[in-house]
Design a protein that fits this description.
The chain is an alpha+beta fold. The protein contains 17 helices and 23 strands.
């Protein structure tokens, strides 16, 4: 029986990861990422962050050749390709499809004034009701910066695209994008169900700069002969899925329906929930984009909560308070202290301005510390509780938007390796946590299987998703968790 493989690419700012999934068993048979050390980010000025798109392509080629070799996969056995990518970046190409400048990536902040001015000039109600967000620091505002500051470059632009669109272009030789991608760049009007003409007009962008729109799950292009030669793939292999990293992470965890939540907690933390009706936060403390399965007929919006000070706080505590023990031992130490850390609260916002706090930069603070009563164990627990409470603070905004949060899907990694963190999150939120063995590149591969028609639907694609653990809320301790959270919220309000 002929083997059928699905190839997933995850284009991050630190590396490009490729995974090869056996379409019939649903199992990942090979994974690789390049570079093996973190990819460089160019910061010519403070607040800037750029990467050369060619670097993504070069690393993609290395990763693809590695996984096909490791799996012993023949070129014609790879049946479809899916792409996940770092969101909000800007790539500008000329008529020859060459990048005109380095990509201005997601963490570059130079465009903030351009987004804020548009928000003020166009009006909050108009922006939020049509874009579901402030233009903020997203792709459209980045393009406005290029237009004003690099007019010669701007005049040469043929098409603008997101990082995933660029990789799809290098694979196929054709330029396209998706509604989900346009929405994350602030180019999509949810009221009119088309490109946001009013924002394009405001910035003076020619409509021709927007690439042709293709469905998220469908044949979006085919691998060209030139790309096939570079990658060791078969010319004509279809590219059948594309999604930003957070929507794709949700897909990887089979989070597609209203009320379902996907969470990650690495250096920063993300809670991404699916909303079944068009809505937005009037204070723009969370971001709303078209989810991968959104359509005009079926509203599926991804509400994105990002907390900058999550795993970075835990790492700081480990490095400065418990440097001589492992993370596992640190978790055990924290567990020796009761829920609520006996009155110690840590506000975890020490990694820059937080959108959930309306872009305030309040810093990290410790409250309630008693020198005669509290030890480093209290600080360790209070840090993890503070991270959980910041998640729950944002999740309350999502609930105010109409989201009924009952289940949280996550990979068993980073902060979710801590039983204390997991139990506290379940206890405060009242949601059951399910941990899975998956990642973005595997999710992109399975998305490709859906788009190619190899899988009839997501249920079939993710039927083999391995559930590692289920954490149900401990209802007997609900009052203790709630009291600790309420104390933390009160202290945050004093700071704000």
């Amino acid at each position: 029986m002929e083997k059928r493989y699905l190839l997933g690419l995850d284009v991050g700012s630190s590396s490009v990861k490729a995974s090869l999934v056996d379409a019939d068993s649903g199992k990942c048979v090979a994974s690789a990422f390049y570079p093996e050390k973190e990819a460089p980010i160019m910061a010519v000025k403070a607040g800037w962050a750029e990467q050369d798109p060619q670097m993504w392509w070069d690393n993609a080629k290395l990763a693809v050749r590695r996984v096909t070799a490791d799996a012993g996969a023949a070129a014609d056995e790879v049946k479809a390709i899916g792409i996940s990518y770092q969101m909000h970046g800007l790539v500008c190409v000329d008529k020859d499809l060459h990048a005109l400048r380095p990509s201005i990536i997601w963490c570059d902040s130079r465009a903030v004034p351009y987004g804020e001015k548009a928000f003020g000039d166009l009006g909050a109600e108009r922006c939020l009701s049509h874009l579901l967000n402030s233009p903020g620091n997203f792709t459209a505002a980045k393009l406005a910066w290029v237009k004003e500051n690099e007019p010669e470059t701007y005049r040469k632009i043929y098409k603008v695209m997101l990082p995933g669109d660029y990789i799809a272009m290098r694979l196929s030789g054709t330029v396209s994008t998706t509604v989900s991608g346009l929405s994350e760049g602030m180019f999509w009007d949810f009221k009119q169900h088309r490109v946001a003409d009013f924002l394009m007009d405001y910035y003076g962008f020619d409509p021709s700069l927007i690439a042709d729109i293709v469905p998220t799950f469908a044949v979006q292009g085919e691998v060209s002969a030139a790309a096939a030669d570079e990658l060791g793939l078969k010319a004509g292999t279809p590219i059948t899925y594309r999604g930003g990293d957070q929507p794709n992470n949700a897909l990887s965890l089979n989070v597609l329906n209203p009320g379902e939540i996907a969470a990650t907690a690495g250096t920063s933390g993300v809670v991404y929930g699916v909303l079944g009706e068009v809505n937005y936060d009037p204070q723009s403390r969370v971001n709303t984009f078209a989810h991968v399965n959104h359509s005009q007929e079926q509203t599926r919006l991804g509400v994105l909560l990002c907390i900058n000070g999550t795993g970075i706080l835990n790492a700081w505590v480990h490095r400065n308070i418990t440097p001589d023990i492992s993370y596992a031992e640190m978790n055990d130490l924290a567990a020796t202290v009761p829920i609520g850390s006996e009155g110690v609260s840590i506000i975890p916002f020490g990694n820059g301005a937080e959108r959930v706090l309306e872009n305030k930069e309040v810093g990290c603070s410790v409250s309630g510390l008693n020198f005669n009563r509290h030890s480093k164990a209290h600080l360790v627990r209070a840090a993890q509780e503070g991270i959980v409470f910041s998640f729950c603070y944002g999740m309350e905004i999502m609930q105010q938007m109409g989201m009924d949060i009952r289940k949280i899907h996550a990979g068993r990694a980073n902060m979710f390796l801590s039983p204390l963190f997991r139990n506290t999150l379940a206890g405060v939120s009242g949601a059951t946590i399910e941990l899975y063995d998956t990642d973005g590149s595997v999710g992109a591969a399975k998305g490709a299987g859906i788009g190619a028609g190899i899988y009839a639907n997501a249920d079939e694609a993710f039927a083999t998703l391995e559930k590692l653990e289920v954490i149900a809320p401990d209802t007997s301790k609900a009052a203790e968790y709630r009291a600790a959270y309420d104390l933390w919220k009160g202290r945050l309000r004093e700071i704000l």
